[in-house]
Design goal:
This protein has 125 residues and is α/β, with parallel strands linked by helices. It has one domain: 3-Layer(aba) Sandwich (Rossmann fold), CATH 3.40.50. It contains five helices and five strands. The protein has a five-stranded parallel sheet, with helices on both faces. Helix 3 links the parallel strand 3 and strand 4. Helix 2 runs parallel beside helix 3. The two termini are 16 Å apart.
Length: 125
């Protein structure tokens, strides 16, 4: 039995949330959804804990990188944060904000899966 990871998926687009959710479910993740960076930050403020956060870049109210800066500042240093975007300069924005990894959109399972596996392996040890 694989232990399920708690995943927070942050994306403004419903279609993207559906696509990435189904991937995460296939990787045995229990998924919480947020529509923008502020909702994601609020989840952490409320004391929710996640093993992995998959976060889009450009969203209304608060962008992905802005949210990551705030989440890291709260002391959530152990959670793996993966930025996703179709923008050319997105990787720098995410890494500068404190993300661990970056996946270009459209998200492909073979790129996301090893990142999830890494978190599963870390939890086992």
């Amino acid at each position: 039995m694989t232990s399920s990871l708690k995943a927070l998926l942050v994306d403004y687009m419903a279609v993207e949330r559906m696509v990435v959710s189904s991937m995460l479910r296939n990787f045995h993740c229990e998924i919480t959804l947020a529509k923008n960076g502020k909702e994601a930050v609020d989840m952490f403020l409320e004391g929710n804990e996640f093993d992995i956060v998959v976060c889009d870049k450009d969203m209304p109210i608060m962008t992905g990188p802005e949210a990551i800066v705030k989440i890291r500042a709260m002391g959530a240093t152990d959670v793996k944060i993966v930025g996703v975007s179709a923008d050319d300069n997105a990787m720098e924005a995410f890494m500068g904000a404190g993300a661990d990894d970056f996946v270009p959109k459209p998200v492909r399972p073979e790129i996301l899966q090893p990142m999830v596996q890494e978190v599963i392996n870390k939890k086992k040890n």
